[in-house]
Amino acid sequence: MGTVNLRGKGESLPDLTGKVHQLPCCIKYDGPTAVSQYFKPKPTGVEIDGLRVEEAYFRGRKLQGTTVPLPQGYSGFVLGKTSLGKQANIPEENPNCWEMKAKFQNVTVWNHDSLPSQNDAFLRAFHWFAVAKSLHQPVTAEDLESSSISQKLE
Amino acid sequence: MRSEAALPKWASKPCMMGIDEAGRGPVLGPMVYGCVYCACSYQKALSTLNFADSKTLKEEKREELFENLKTDESIGWAVDVIDPRELSSKMLKKHKINLNEISHDSAIGLVSRVLNLGVLLTEVYVDTVGDAEKYRIKLSERFPSIKFVVAKKADSIYPVVSGASIVAKVTRDRALRDWVLDETAENMHRNFGSGYPGDPETKSWLDDHKHSVFGFPTLVRFSWGTCTSYSKHLVEVLWESDAADEDGLSERTRKRQLKLTNVGFTASKRKSEEIESSGKGRCKFFQARKLELLSEF
């Protein structure tokens, strides 16, 4: 079972807001690369479903995307394994323990050949936030009372 | 882009037009379609202007002829500059558009544009792209009032097409010379060469500007075969649209390739390709949103 440590150093984390991109392809590479020098999103002026459309090119493909803010009360985090060694480079890592390496407040979601839409799976995943809120909200005495009333009425 | 602001008088008499392209073969830079038109009665005078197939002329001579052509009030011209980003992305779309189609569309666009100006086009001469007869039928069906002549080497046979080839070639050369690279990496330079894959200068420019993740700057036509020869130096990138291409793939492989679209962790227990959350085995709400519960990561 993996654990994620979300405590501490929240303020000092690098902020990647505006720099997190979800691409419609699998890039078989992990590591740093010159994103800001090569990947140049541009606004198109088009708005669809209330989403501002941007365009960019990657490997000759035209991508159309939109930047979506994470809902109030939520944050995005880049996680990395907690290092146990004194030096960060030592491969001695705790295999199941993750910690925050950076945070972000929006994500730019890109499609190949199709305009962004509220029906894109990534945006639909956000529906969970509302459902989760209702599911996890503490039930108050009033809630119980009103639900028992409605049961009696049936 | 057009030479005259107001429509000249001769444009209401029967006119002829030549269309030609420059930069079809190069691995980088825009492809340009150009056209030149004039009254059919001006044809004789046109042949005295010494237009020849632009490839046989020196650059200075082409520039000079283009300037003469622009000041000649009996001639009209127009160009369509097709950005390399547009060429690559159309040829790499999920439903691929090949270069011949892009070329046909550009020529059709030029004919429409000139007709919309009010020019009475009756004859149009075009160099062949793909099958000449099929191309002629396509153009004739689109513009029934125009007689189309589609011929190999039209640029050396018909002066009006030679003129178009000069317009196209000069425009392409200038566009490449003045190209503003979108990328801002260090040590980039502008010694593009001609852009033809065989040109040593172009080859060394490609070598100097290849990038393991991004491939090349967007000036390069990624859809060109020349670029595939560099692919061994590049990080592999898998696209959903590539999967449909390869026939004979097993259903499993296909499924795996189609699963590339979404977020997810690339944990050691999963194959690196299977990066999409599936929501498998969960209630429909999660499946539809591809939300998966992860406890092992």
UniProtKB/TrEMBL annotation, chain A:
GO terms for biological process: RNA catabolic process. It comes from Coffea canephora. This is Uncharacterized protein. Gene3D superfamilies: 2.40.128.680. It holds the Pfam family RNase_H2_suC. GO terms for cellular component: ribonuclease H2 complex. It comes from the Eukaryota.
TrEMBL record, chain B:
It is an enzyme of class 3 (hydrolase). Its EC number is 3.1.26.4. Manganese or magnesium. Binds 1 divalent metal ion per monomer in the absence of substrate. May bind a second metal ion after substrate binding. It catalyses: Endonucleolytic cleavage to 5'-phosphomonoester. InterPro entries: RNase_H2_suA, RNase_HII/HIII, RNase_HII/HIII_dom, RNase_HII_hlx-loop-hlx_cap_dom, RNaseH-like_sf, RNaseH_sf. Residues 14-236 form the RNase H type-2 domain. It holds the Pfam family RNase_HII. One of its GO terms (cellular component) is ribonuclease H2 complex. A divalent metal cation binds at D20, E21, D127. Its cofactor is Mg(2+); Mn(2+). The keyword Nuclease applies. The keyword Nucleotidyltransferase does not apply. One of its GO terms (molecular function) is RNA binding. One of its GO terms (biological process) is mismatch repair. Keywords: Endonuclease, Hydrolase, Metal-binding, Nuclease. Endonuclease that specifically degrades the RNA of RNA-DNA hybrids. Belongs to the RNase HII family. Eukaryotic subfamily. This is Ribonuclease.
